[in-house]
Structure formats: structure tokens, C-alpha cells
Amino acid sequence: MKWDSITGIIWINRGQATLESTVQAPKPVATGSKPSVSLMGIEVGDSIETVTTRLGAPVRKDPSEYGFTWYIYHNKYKNYIQVGISNGIAVALYTNANGWTLKNNITVGTSKRDAEQQMGAPVTSIMKNNVKYILNDNEHIGRYRLGANYVTLFYDKYTQNRVTSVLVVQAKAEESLVQHHGSELISAYEQQSFDIANALRVRLGKTPFIWDKSVSSTARKHSADMIVNRYFDHSSPSGTSPLDRMKTDGIIFQSAAENIAAGQQNAIYAHEAWMNSEGHRTNLMSDNTRLGVGVSFGGKMNVYYTQNFFTPYK
């Protein structure tokens, strides 16, 4: 078992998990006009009473960078959905589960070509407080204006650029966002990163990861170290690898891997970026059984994410 810092590969038990560094993902969206949308029977603009009547009590409530509260719903990671609530009203929705339809035709598996025939061209900028923000989206993210909402479709390049998930944010909320990050979001981003990964694994017929508190601490320390020592890499300036860090923290494993990302607006964008990178995707879909996520705010990229995966010795 060894870590190759040049190729970014961990060699484990005659196998290998490729680890790469992801690039900074974009900031949010822009203009246009079309009708409203709903996901799993919930529509932006619904009251909190409507949401809880249809979906029940949330598994968890998380703060968001927008200032609204995410209500997190799933049934053992099936039917995963996040509903953003502000002043008793649903102002945002996200899901990577099956079972939703947008504009009667767009759902998981819809091709990018067909989606854009329905949605039109993606927006390329957004006005916020009289300042024009140019979007830096890649070809696997499509942001569209749909009525009073911005809709972001995430495309999976490993399924020929088909829709894999959707984020809907009320235009008023999106246009007032000026990238807020604070310590209260650390746990929220970590838990959402874990949940979103498991929701996709369950959708694809894989067993969900088990949360591991110890390796989450390892991951968080690495995210913080990248900020303090001004680098972005799996290997630290002192030469420690992911395997070294796990061993130092007393984690005994038969296989292990790591994903890192920096600059993404939130855990949703970090996850979707990882899934469009072969090495990261391999780790997220691997047979490792445990996952811990560590997030830290600050530094050149504002936010750093680390995921540590491992399978303990039996």
C-alpha cells in the first residue's frame, strides 16, 4: 500500500484509486423568464405547512449560505430532497433522486440537448445589487431562468451529458446572495456532502457509506491545513499523504482514498464537480464502507472540502 503524490494514485491491495485535484467551481446564476417548477410535489412558494404535510418532519435542518434553512428529507437515502425555507416559505429545492419531472419532460436521464430545447440557452451572468456577475460554469452545469426562479441542471459527462440532479432557487434569494461563508455552515456542508453521496449511491444500487467521526476529523484538519499553509494538494508541504494522516489519527484500514475540492459555493456543487472527475467519481462509487467529510473556510479559495474514504480491517 503506498501513496504516489506525482500521479495522485493510492495503490491498495493490488488495486488503485485515482485521486485528482478539482478546479474551482462557479458562482450562481442569471436572467430570463418562464413558468414555475415543482419537485416531488413541492413548489417554490409553498408554505412550510404544505411542505411538512407532504413530506413530514425533516431528517435535519441545516443553515445555508443564502441565509435560509435547508430542510433535509430522505428515507434511508431514497427520495432525497432539500427544501430551502425562509420566513415560512419554500424558496429553494435540490434533489439527485429519481422521481421528479421539470416542465413535463426533463428528469434524471434527460439528455442535455433535449433539456436545452425545453429550457433555452443557459444564462451567463447575473445582476446582484447593480453589479454584474459573470458565471464561470462548465459544460456540465446549465443554469436557466424559469419564471421567478433560477434552475440549475447538473449534467453527468459519464452518461453522455444526461441530467443527474437539479437545483431550483427563487430569483430573489439568488440575486441577493453575495457568497456568505461562516463557521455555522461547516457541519451543514459536511453532512450534506455525505448525504448527497449516499443518495446517489442508493439511486445507482450501491450500499450507502457509514459516517465515520474519526476520519471526518482527519479530513477537516487537512482542509484547514491547506488554508493555513496555502496549498491545494493531497500531500502536504511536509510530505504527509492521506494514508499518513489517517494512520496518525489511529485509523486502521485495508483500503483508503481521498477527494479534495476548493472554491465551490456549497456541498452540492462540490459533489457534482467530483462526479464529473474520473478519480473522484471512482472514490465516491467505490466499495469502501466508511466516509468522513471535513470542511474549512478561509484562504484563497474561501472554502476547502476533503472527503476521506476507508474500509476498516475486520
Secondary structure: elements and pairs:
Blueprint: E1 2-4, E2 9-12, E3 15-18, E4 38-39, E5 42-43, H1 48-55, E6 60-63, E7 69-75, E8 78-86, E9 89-95, H2 112-119, E10 125-128, E11 131-134, E12 141-146, E13 149-156, E14 162-170, H3 171-176, H4 186-203, E15 210-211, H5 213-228, H6 242-248, E16 253-262, H7 267-275, H8 278-284, E17 290-297, E18 303-312
Parallel strand pairs: 15-17
Antiparallel strand pairs: 1-2, 2-3, 4-5, 6-7, 7-8, 8-9, 9-14, 10-11, 12-13, 13-14, 16-18, 17-18
Helix pairs in contact: 4-7
Written account of the structure:
This protein has helices spanning 48-55, 112-119, 171-176, 186-203, 213-228, 242-248, 267-275, 278-284, and strands at residues 2-4, 9-12, 15-18, 38-39, 42-43, 60-63, 69-75, 78-86, 89-95, 125-128, 131-134, 141-146, 149-156, 162-170, 210-211, 253-262, 290-297, 303-312. It is globular. It contains 8 helices and 18 strands. Helix 4 (186-203) crosses helix 7 (267-275). The protein has 314 residues and is of the alpha+beta class. The chain has 2 domains: 37-176, CAP (Pathogenesis-related Protein p14a); 183-312, CAP (Pathogenesis-related Protein p14a, 3-Layer(aba) Sandwich). Residues 45-175 form the CAP-associated domain. It comes from Paenibacillus swuensis. This is Copper amine oxidase. Pfam families: CAP, CAP_assoc_N.
